[in-house]
Amino acid sequence: MNLVGLNWTIVINSDVVNLERIIVIILDYVGNGQETSQIVGHLIMPIFQGVNPSTADEQILDYKNVSSIRASSFDGSKKTKIIIHGYTHNGHRQWLQNMARAFLKKEDMNVIIVDWGHGAVPPYTEAAANTRVVGAQVAKLISVMVSADQSGIDKFHLIGHSLGAHVAGYAGERLTHLPRISGLDPADPYFQGTDIKVRLDPTDADFVDVIHTDGSSILSLGMGAAQQMGHVDFYPNGGSEQPGCPAGLLSKITQTVWHSVSQLDLLAGEGSVACSHERSYIYYTESILYSCPFMDIQNSKDEFSKGRCLYCDGGCSYMGYNADKSTSRGSMYLSTQAAAPYCNFHYQLNITANNSMDGKLTVVLQGSKGNTDAILLTPNEEVLSNGNTMTKFFTINKDIGNVTAVALRYDKTANLLLGWAYPNAWSLMGLSLLEAEKHRMDQFCAYGKSVQNHGATSFGMMGTC
């Protein structure tokens, strides 16, 4: 299997000004599989201003010539992130640039984008076979950089999407003690259910974290593997169809055709059929800089969706960039929003009634950084009897800081046959709120206080009553 046009893009932050420097290092293969003698690239600076590279910027890097690598912009004393795209993509895709820039905003480091676009084209069978070749070359590049720049293997972290996740695995199995691989929705066909030598697995690095976002059946055009492949595997929204993406075969095909025809661009429909598959790298990129930690909990998917497992007790982890900050292992579950920002803050509200009520409840959380919108806790009218506690799980996608008060609105049932049995003033005995991301439970001043029908009452935190 011949592979043509394997490119490496190194993105490095400038120490002097807030600019990015990009070196495109192109490794070509001739027809018989033998590599050419040199790696040729261009230095582009600054990329934000769109300055075109010139011959004066050109660097000649020969991995057989150690001095050429030492003379490059690669800094072996810094961390190095290597991002690897998947099937049908190439190194110029915007998501790669977005992730690279997010890394550089996080801290000063080396970011390498592996562009194997010529080897990732259809047919899929050949692209899948090429992953082993690309993985071997990634491993070789790392070995040369470690040797040439006195860098350490402990500086490297590989992030691969789709087929790129398996590329990272092949690279990792050739290296000793690669610290980390992040697999972003590893490709399913020809990999799921195979031996660990064929696919990404926990032995490929000291720590392997995997995000599954499109693990539905291949008959539904699911592209990602649902199988656990890491030390910790994250399943946002169950790990298959993501919120805001078309669900099911018919919906995916219909939206793909519509977007392709309406925009007169065959690639325009890719976002529909691959929407859930692509969410993995979108979630990961958001996790690099966003204050929301993408917290998830080790439990069953059903238990998590019902909000029954928000207490960590050592079983919490963080999807994406901060996954290595936790010692949790196994399958982890979380929910996301349907649009950016995707990360959720998880809350559990416990309300104990002093008298019975029947109706709908709405809550607004008031925080040190702002308030939430009104959140309907009971889409359908519910009955809460005297002395009983109602527990409601909900999420928001913005950081409101520390919750300082909880405002409840009560709308009594409009049923003429039942409404007379319930008072217009609903009295409470207790009110508590669990903020899962902060591992914090707060009590609020609700004892003996009431909420009037069609009215709202704000309850301050205990100690401020």
Automatic annotation (TrEMBL):
InterPro entries, from UniProt? Answer: AB_hydrolase_fold (IPR029058), Lipase (IPR013818), Lipase_LIPH (IPR016272), Lipase_N (IPR033906), Lipase_panc (IPR002331), PLAT/LH2_dom_sf (IPR036392), TAG_lipase (IPR000734)
Give the residues annotated as active site. Answer: S162 (nucleophile), D185 (charge relay system), H277 (charge relay system)
Give the GO biological process terms.
lipid catabolic process
Question: What's one Pfam family the UniProt record gives for this protein?
Answer: Lipase
| Cellular component per GO, a single term | extracellular space
Where the record annotates domain Lipase, the positions are 59-342
Subcellular location(s) per record: Secreted
Instruction: State the Gene Ontology terms under molecular function.
Output: metal ion binding; triacylglycerol lipase activity
The residues listed in the UniProt record as binding Ca(2+), with positions renumbered to this chain, are: R199, D201, D204
Q: Which UniProt keywords apply?
A: Calcium, Disulfide bond, Metal-binding, Secreted
Q: Which family does it belong to?
A: Belongs to the AB hydrolase superfamily. Lipase family.
Q: What is this protein called?
A: Pancreatic lipase-related protein 2,Inactive pancreatic lipase-related protein 1
